[in-house]
Amino acid sequence: MRIRIYTMLFIGLFLIVGCKEKPEDTVKSNYLDFSKRDDQFTGGIKMIPITTPKGNFKVWTKTVGNNPTIKVLLLHGGPGLTHELYESFDGYFPNESIEYIYYDQLGSYYSDQPNDNSLWTNERFVEEVEQVRKALGCDNTNFYVLGQSWGGILAMEYALKYQKNLKGLIISNMMASAPAYNKYADEVLGPKLPKAVFDQIKTFEKNKDYTNPKYTELLFKYYYTEHILRMPIDKWPESINRCFKHINPNVYVYMQGPSEFGITGDATLKDWDVTARLKTITVPTLVIGAKYDTMDPKHMEWMSHEVQNGRFLYCPNGSHLSQYDDQKNYFKGVIQFLRDVDNGDFKKG
């Protein structure tokens, strides 16, 4: 009888322990539960107040999911584009219970758009990201930034000042030097175009005839579909077309310039270069490069070794928007990075 009682107790204890929900199961079961959140009413959207030297404004954010240890703030490209560049993430992150935050920077379509060029500086954008982080309640136990293109510049600049607040950093499709990017565009990508086409494009740019329909036609036909998004124009995702439709050209041209062959003219980012400072970044860092990118993938591989805890993700089928034209490799690598950092299994390489 005593043996039978002990056996029943053991079985009961086994069932209690064995049926205890794992942490990852808890996250998954609560991932779409907004009932305890203050943004349930708006479906995750928050207009976050920010202060600037030129007054107070609001920026648009939308949080998808709940995960107490993985919260990824998405820094869009441009400058002056929108969060819509990242809508493909909806097809991958929710299934992995990864919380992510769409965000339109000040001046972009869904946020306030003050008409003051003095606001468009790296330093002010960094302070904006820090204010957004605080408003979202993120810290170094859960906070990641993922920046693509110009967003990669902003992500690097943020990490160089505020890495103490980061759990991980993802630099997607962005070199650490505008002069190096210009050199790659002019000496490598341009000459790969048919010579007659490249000569026409350079003539348009020399004459500053950027609004000429022929200039735009040549770029889309020969350059964009090779190095921006490797799909026929009529197959481009609606989210990308919508994003480009919503661009703020004032912010874009002021910081990036009117050309797609590098950062040119009197654009404020023309001389930007943080290559000498990368070695001061200590947080786990993923750098993403692609074979057909407008950015040199070899340079980005070098960046992954220059930071102290870096990993390189290569997208062999991707271009500048690898989150669309090489999703298999892009999302597999990003998700693995987030999982490894979260589990304490991150190894650089």
Automatic annotation (TrEMBL):
One of its GO terms (molecular function) is aminopeptidase activity. Transmembrane segments: none annotated. Keywords: Aminopeptidase, Hydrolase, Protease. Pfam families: Abhydrolase_1. Its EC number is 3.4.11.5. InterPro entries: AB_hydrolase_1, AB_hydrolase_fold, AB_hydrolase_sf, Peptidase_S33, Pro_imino_pep. Residues 72-326 form the AB hydrolase-1 domain. PANTHER family: HYDROLASE, PUTATIVE (AFU_ORTHOLOGUE AFUA_2G14860)-RELATED, MONOACYLGLYCEROL LIPASE. Belongs to the peptidase S33 family. This is Proline iminopeptidase. It comes from Flavobacterium granuli. The lineage of its organism: Bacteria, Pseudomonadati, Bacteroidota, Flavobacteriia, Flavobacteriales.
